[in-house]
# Entry
Amino acid sequence: MHPLPDRLTMLRAVWPWREPPILDFMRRQLADRGRVDLDDREQRLVLRLPDMSAPVHVRIERTDPPVRDVHPDMLSASTLERRRLARSRWHVVLEHELDPRDPTRAFHVLMQLAVLLSPDLPALYDPAALALRPGAVARRMAARRVPPPPPALYRLHAVLPDGGSGTAKPEAGAWVHTHGLMRIGLPELELHQVPVALLDEAFELVAAIVTRGIEDAGLLEGPPIEVVRGHPLASRRLEALGPDCVPALRSPERGVWHQGTRRVIVSVERGVGAPVACLEAIGEGAVMRGTGEREAARMSDRAREGWPEFGMSFVRHREDDAYRFMVRLAYRVDRGAPDEREHLWFEVLEIAPGRVRARLLDEPVAILRMRAGDVDWHELDAMSDWTVHQPDGALRPHDL
# Structure
């Protein structure tokens, strides 16, 4: 198996029955979505949607051998989903060239079409990202009104030194890399020699860079990037790094799925290895600059869509010290452009219809009337994000 061509996105909706799906059934299912033509020569449907930049091609393909339920992504799947996946013999294949200007919306539409064409699908396979989503997860994502966040478009892998056996030298680190970014017009990203204790921070850094890169196509080709103020990062071509100084170049894991256009993120000062100081700053809670206007609007819409779940959790657990309820609000700055806003985190103390009483956690940079620790009522019209810290981890809007 080889990687998909650049810019082509393929989703494979697993068909749960032994009998193959019927192309005419697929055609009827799609009739209300747009213009559907039958390509007899290729034995596929061509769906043209009014608000999509390129057509969606739909075909039926036999899978031999079938995708197995031992894939790590299926550990959270139900027993029924795993059983159906193990016996599957057919896929409904959707192919589309994502618009790099707004890829999450087009990807969301593809997921909705996959669920429409295989309503009982046990799993949805995304080859470019090497991601196999359980059917319940795919249906939940497709049912949302708001598209998924940029991390849904790619998968981050971390190859641990010596396979994580603990026998590696202390200076050895993990090789962190992406799968799936080339289809949205970005190079695949890598971090080399990442301290294992900073892997979560490395994932956050990549997510911030990708989010900015979607809205700024030249981000990785231009001047140094500052995701965290005071920690400039450089983007270097993989082939420009010598194999003697980059162990990840010699990893036995680097095969056909790790080719193509790739960029390595390093600190401007060091030039090789992971930008450790930047990762440590992220771990200490430094403010990250990774959200453009479009992503901020998407996050705000998703936060509002998931607010009822936040409210129910608050009612159930507000007296439990193991829970903390946080909301991020955007306010117009006192110094800066007229439409510029600063996003601040608050701890929620009370909830009322359309507003919250909350304690400001951040120290504002450009809002003179606010100070960290202030407690006041705030309108939820300003909400841009929220988080519930609970005993088994954080719950965020895109987790629902």
Summary: The mean pLDDT is 85. The longest helix spans residues 199-215. Helices lie at 23-30, 79-87, 103-117, 135-143, 199-215, 276-283, 293-305, 307-317.
